[in-house]
Amino acid sequence: MIKEYTVNLTKEAETDLEEIVSYIAKDSIQNALKIFDRLHSRSL
After folding, report:
1. Dist. CA 26–CA 44, nearest whole Å
2. Are 9 and 17 in contact (CB under 8 A)?
3. Tag placement on the chain: N or C end, fewer CB within 10 Å?
4. Does a structural domain hold residue 5?
5. Domain annotation covers residue 3
6. What is the pLDDT at residue 44?
7. For the stretch 4-29, what's the b/e string if a residue is b when 16 or more beta carbons lie within 10 angstroms of its beta carbon?
8. pLDDT for residue 21
9. Is residue 36 within 8 Å of residue 21, measured between CB atoms?
């Protein structure tokens, strides 16, 4: 059985996520959005 957890992002973590996505977007906006969706959806 898989346990589910709630993850609350701090402001610092949100900023880090934005910076990661911005860095990836320099190469590929599509990939950056995919990564953002994956990471963000798992943190809700």
Report:
1. 26
2. yes
3. N
4. no
5. no
6. 60
7. eeeeeeeeeeeeebeeebeebeeeee
8. 93
9. yes
The string of pLDDT tens digits covering residues 1-44 is 888 877 788 999 889 989 999 999 999 999 999 998 988 777 66
Count of CB atoms situated within 10 Å of the CB of 37 = 11
Per the document, the length of the chain is 44
- The 3 state secondary structure assigned to the chain is CCCCCCCCCCHHHHHHHHHHHHHHHCCCHHHHHHHHHHHHHHCC
CA 8 to chain centre: 12
Domain that holds residue 36: 11-42
Give the count of domains, the chain.
1
